[in-house]
Design goal:
- With 696 residues, this protein is α+β, with helices and mostly antiparallel strands.
- Among the domains are: 145 residues; 119 residues, 2-Layer Sandwich (Nucleotidyltransferase, domain 5), CATH 3.30.420; 89 residues, no CATH class; 112 residues, Dna Ligase, domain 1 (2-Layer Sandwich).
- The protein is built from 17 helices and 33 strands.
- A hairpin with a 4-residue loop joins strand 13 and strand 14.
- Helix 5 crosses helix 6, helix 9 packs across helix 14 and helix 11 packs across helix 12.
- The chain starts with 9 loop residues before the first strand and ends with a helix.
- 49% of the residues are buried.
């Protein structure tokens, strides 16, 4: 990487979530850490970012690097507030977005004949704005029908008349031959100067529906995200920032604003990805290589399973049912249970927590900002888990009376006391999160006894041990600054670029395929991108992967490939490895069937200079702040201890029931459990009952 200004010694991670904007700063020579949390300013995210930066007390001229993750794109998709988009598709295929995979989500709507997919009910691209273009690329990449340039020009005229400012272009089989999409894009740009145009060249792989969704969503969020980044860059420049602004992407790495703006769709949920990146870094440093991550914020909880210290990856990701993208993405699951999730009674009279959230405006009732509906935060205030004068370092005063009044409106129809409702809602939210964790672990054959639960986000530590108890996990880890841990993960991420292509050929020594040439071509593409962002070729580490399936199957599987030249001997080894993978993953193999390689992928990463780790300090004073009432498991403990985390001596155990409080998070230690700070300052909460059962 390029030499840095020696006076710019601060690195920052900024994570803009749906409720809060988190900033964490590290001085790279001393290891000093500062953090701030402010309410997200929806519609003007840069205002909240500058507000948080102003509260850090670090002159912007001393900041060398900022790594940024945000939710501007995903919020636009979920709320359907993106750009007005037109789609150019192969003639006869403009309804691909609606047809999808012809499946429906199992659940309350499974037997409802009136149910529509979210995209049909609330289209990202209106059907009247989708245009069929006369052209056709065959299954083998050969031109079957030449591009009709006149039909593209006519579509451009209709797009102009409709006042559309963003265009997506995705033709059938263009992952094998991109020529028609490039021609069409050139015509659109000529006819409609200044309009945002995107093609499937951003990630040219098989799966027509998913590829079309990816391009369509990029056109939907592209103008908004690039507009936000432009305003943010201008605001930072005006404030005196002279360092480098990096953007977090969904493949687990960072990129320059210029490079990532070429495909803004890859930034949709960059904040939660930062949390997983931080968890991988923490696990490798501490020796906790198998961890389940649980990142609970104000709106939702994101979960992931990290095995052997490796970042979990997938090639498909669903924004919502029927809107599934094909792209390299960190494998993160999500559930609509967050600290701001609304507690309510559904149409069947059942108690629910979420997925609707109070967000930052108006926020939970206890914030006193106009919110009247009860949230998980309100429940935790009533239970004593959140102490009004200690919450967020005293920055936000919590009103217990307003929390009780909001909960009472739901408790009375159920015949419950406010305290019983709060206790039930807390455990229900924990159960929902535990179910989400199982979906990315137990349901994939993982033995949770081999894992620890890493809890972060401001709300994560307050539910972590209850979730761990439901899962049968014996240990919980709470990192330093858990409320800003995703921002810390952004700070530690490397430069990373992924490229792929879909050859759709048989994997066999006699298939006459030059695998090494194809991979080398992708490596050169990745290297060129990293070079444009300041990375030296000698510093790039390449990773290769194949997506494979048996002939006749529909869905493929990602298999990482060890470094080395791919000759015929290696091809045979890879073929045998595919059969072994099927045996391990599914309990069977079909060695008599040909193995099809749908896609090959190359990822290149270049390390950013490592910063000095922070030093753990124990502050002077009595670690017990006070004792008070704490209700857990339907039992009120009138004399529970409440500890200040930064005053806990290293290695000294505290026993539950107890609270461990810090600036932007509270860790709950249940009865029958203990907790201590390790040498790195991490809190480790042990479920003693589970540990005893395992010992027996």
């Amino acid at each position: 990487m390029a030499e840095k200004d020696q006076s710019q010694t601060w690195w920052l991670g900024i994570d803009v979530g749906g409720t809060f904007t988190d900033v964490i700063a590290r001085e790279i020579t001393t290891g000093e850490v500062r953090d701030r949390k402010v309410l997200t300013t929806r519609g003007e995210l840069e205002v909240g970012v500058l507000d948080a930066l102003g509260q850090l007390g670090v002159p912007l001229g001393q900041i060398g690097e900022i790594v940024h993750g945000h939710t501007a794109g995903i919020n636009a998709v979920l709320s359907r507030q993106g750009a007005k988009v037109a789609l150019l598709a192969t003639d006869g295929h403009r309804d691909l977005l609606d047809i999808g995979r012809m499946d429906r989500e199992f659940g309350a709507n499974f037997y409802d004949p009136t149910w529509l997919r979210p995209h049909q009910e609330r289209p990202v691209i209106q059907r009247r704005h989708r245009f069929g273009i006369r052209e056709r690329i065959g299954w083998d990449g050969e031109v079957v029908v030449p591009l009709d340039e006149q039909s593209v020009a006519e579509a451009a005229g209709a797009i102009r008349e409709a006042g559309i400012k963003s265009v997506a272009i995705c033709f059938l089989n263009s992952y094998l031959n991109i020529a028609h999409e490039r021609q069409a894009a050139e015509i659109v740009r000529r006819e409609l100067p200044g309009v945002y145009v995107q093609t499937s060249e951003i990630y040219p792989v098989t799966k027509e529906h998913e590829r079309t969704v990816t391009v369509g969503l990029d056109a939907y969020v592209g103008p908004l995200v690039t507009g936000y980044l432009s305003r943010l860059e201008d605001a930072l420049d005006d404030a005196g920032f002279g360092g480098t602004l990096w953007m977090m992407t969904m493949n687990g790495g960072v990129g320059s604003v210029a490079e990532t703006s070429k495909a803004p769709v890859f930034q949709l949920v960059s904040g939660p990805v930062g949390g997983v990146a931080g968890a991988v870094e923490l696990g490798r440093a501490s020796g906790d290589l198998n961890v389940l991550t649980m990142d609970m914020g104000g709106t939702s909880t994101d979960v992931a399973a990290i095995r052997d210290g490796q970042t979990p990856m997938t090639d498909v990701w669903a924004v919502e049912h029927g809107l599934t993208m094909s792209m390299p993405v960190v494998d993160v699951g999500s559930v609509g249970s967050g600290a701001g999730s609304i507690i309510h009674i559904d149409s069947l009279g059942t108690l629910r927590v979420g997925p609707e959230s109070a967000g930052s405006v108006p926020g939970p009732a206890c914030y006193g900002r106009g919110g009247e509906r009860p949230t998980l935060t309100d429940a935790c205030v009533v239970l004593g888990i959140l102490q009004p004068d200690l919450f967020a370092g005293g920055a936000i005063a919590l009103d217990v009376n307003k929390a009780q009044a909001a909960l009472k409106a739901v408790a009375d129809p159920l015949g419950l006391t406010v305290e019983d409702l709060a206790d039930g809602a807390y455990r229900l939210a924990c159960s929902d999160v535990a179910g989400s964790v199982r979906s990315i672990s137990t349901y994939r054959g993982l033995d949770l006894r081999d894992f620890a639960l890493l809890a972060f986000g401001s709300a994560g530590p307050m539910i972590a041990q209850q979730v761990a108890r439901e899962l049968g996990v014996g240990a919980v880890i709470v990192p330093n600054q858990p409320g800003e841990f995703s921002a810390f993960g952004l700070l530690t991420s490397d430069l990373r670029v992924t490229a792929a292509r879909s050859p759709m050929v048989v994997l066999a020594p006699d298939a006459a395929v030059d695998w090494e040439a194809m991979f080398t071509q992708l490596q050169d593409q990745v290297a060129a991108s990293l070079d444009s962002q300041g990375a030296a070729r000698a510093d790039i580490v390449f990773e290769r992967a194949m997506f494979v399936m048996y002939s006749g199957q529909t869905w493929d599987n990602r298999i990482a490939i060890e470094p080395g030249v791919i000759d015929n001997v290696r091809v045979k080894e890879l073929e045998l490895g595919v059969h072994d993978f099927y045996e391990q993953a599914y309990g069977f193999s079909a060695r008599e069937l040909p193995v099809i390689v749908t896609t090959i992928e190359v990822t290149g990463s270049a390390s950013r200079a490592a910063s000095r780790s922070s030093t753990v300090h124990v502050q002077e004073g009595n670690p017990v702040i006070r004792r008070g009432a704490l209700r857990l498991d339907s039992v009120t403990h009138p004399d529970a201890a409440m500890y200040a985390r930064d005053r806990l001596p290293i290695g000294e155990k505290v026993h539950g029931p107890a609270l461990i409080v810090e600036g932007y998070a509270t860790t709950v230690v249940h009865a029958g459990a203990s907790a201590y700070r390790d040498d790195a300052g991490y809190l480790r909460v042990l479920n003693d009952e589970i540990s005893e059962r395992e010992d027996r």
